[in-house]
C-alpha cells in the first residue's frame, strides 16, 4: 500500500509529501512497529522521486525518533509500545519517566461539583459530597497514549487547580495518594470522539482500565476510567503460584 505518485504540482516539497505518506502509514500501522520500511531505492522507484528526496524524508523521521536506522540491516519503525506493569500502583507520569519518556497532558476539562449517584456508589461517598473531575488526554513524547477521566473526593485536595501535571503528585503533596487499588480491564473500540482526541482512527482497539484507589484508612481516593491505546501498550503482570 506504500506507493506514490506524489503530487508534483503541489507546492509542498516532495520530501515533505513523502514524509507525510510514511508518517500516516506508520500511524495507521500499515508498517508495523519494529518492521522494516522499504529500501531507499524501492521508495525512490515506488514514489517516482530521487534517492536524495527519499534520504531527506527518512532523515527527518529518524530525527523525530519515528524511524531507526540499523547499519547493514535497514530502516525500522521505532517500537514505542510501553509495558504496563499491572501489579504496581504507579501513575502514568511515573510509568513514562521510568521508561525515559516525557509525560504530558492536555486538559479536556477540570471542575468541582456535587457527586453523581453513580460516583457516590463508586467512591462510597454520601450524596451531595464535593468531588473534583479531571479529563485529560495523555501523551508520551508528544505521542497520544490515553484518555483519562478521574473523579477525586473533595477531602483529598484543596481545589482543582493544584493538579497541574501529575494527579498522583498532587494527591501525594496533600497527603492523599492512594496506597491500594482495585482495577479492572476490558477491551474496547475507540468511539469517533475519543479517536479524534487521540488523533487516531475511530474503531481502533483500546484497553479500558477502571481503577478505584483507597487511602490507608480505607476511604476512597480516586475513581479513574482510563482508555489506553491498544497499539501502544503491553500489559505485563507477575504471577505467583496459588
Ligand atoms: C494511571 C492510573 C490512573 C491514575 C493516573 C495518575 C492506570 C491504569 N491508571 O494512569 O488511575 O489516575 O495514572 O497519573 O494505571 P498522573 O499522576 O500522571 O496524573
Automatic annotation (TrEMBL):
HTH gntR-type domain mapped to chain residues: 12-80
Pfam families with a match to the protein in the record: GntR, UTRA
SMART domains: HTH_GNTR, UTRA
InterPro entries membership: Bact_HTH_transcr_reg, Chorismate_lyase_/UTRA_dom_sf, Tscrpt_reg_HTH_GntR, UTRA, WH-like_DNA-bd_sf, WH_DNA-bd_sf
Coiled coil: none
UniProt GO BP: negative regulation of DNA-templated transcription
GO terms, molecular function: DNA binding; DNA-binding transcription factor activity
Record's keyword annotation contains Ligase: no
Keywords: DNA-binding, Transcription, Transcription regulation
Name of protein: GntR family transcriptional regulator
Source species: Sphingomonas gilva
Amino acid at each position: 500500500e506504500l506507493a506514490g505518485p506524489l503530487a508534483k504540482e503541489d507546492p509542498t516539497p516532495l520530501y515533505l509529501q513523502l514524509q507525510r505518506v510514511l508518517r500516516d502509514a506508520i500511524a495507521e500501522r500499515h508498517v508495523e512497529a519494529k518492521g522494516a520500511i522499504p529500501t531507499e531505492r524501492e521508495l525512490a522507484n515506488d514514489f517516482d522521486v530521487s534517492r536524495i528526496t527519499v534520504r531527506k524524508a527518512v532523515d527527518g523521521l529518524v530525527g523525530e525518533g519515528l524511524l531507526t536506522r540499523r547499519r547493514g540491516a535497514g530502516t525500522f519503525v521505532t517500537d514505542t509500545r510501553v509495558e504496563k506493569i499491572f501489579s504496581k500502583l504507579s501513575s502514568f507520569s511515573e510509568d513514562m519517566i521510568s521508561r525515559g519518556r516525557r509525560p504530558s497532558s492536555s486538559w479536556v476539562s477540570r471542575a468541582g461539583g456535587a457527586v453523581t449517584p453513580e460516583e457516590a456508589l463508586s467512591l462510597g461517598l454520601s450524596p451531595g459530597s464535593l468531588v473534583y473531575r479531571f479529563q485529560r488526554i495523555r501523551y508520551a513524547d508528544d505521542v497520544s497514549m490515553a484518555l483519562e477521566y478521574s473523579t477525586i473526593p473533595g477531602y483529598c485536595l484543596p481545589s482543582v487547580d493544584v493538579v497541574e501535571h501529575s494527579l498522583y503528585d498532587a494527591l501525594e503533596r496533600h497527603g492523599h495518594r492512594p496506597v491500594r487499588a482495585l482495577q479492572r480491564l476490558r477491551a474496547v473500540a475507540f468511539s469517533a470522539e475519543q479517536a479524534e482526541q487521540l488523533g487516531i482512527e475511530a474503531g481502533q482497539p483500546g484497553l479500558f482500565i477502571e481503577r478505584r484507589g483507597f487511602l490507608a484508612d480505607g476511604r476512597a481516593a480516586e475513581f479513574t476510567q482510563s482508555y489506553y491505546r491498544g497499539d501502544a501498550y503491553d500489559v505485563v503482570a507477575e504471577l505467583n503460584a496459588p
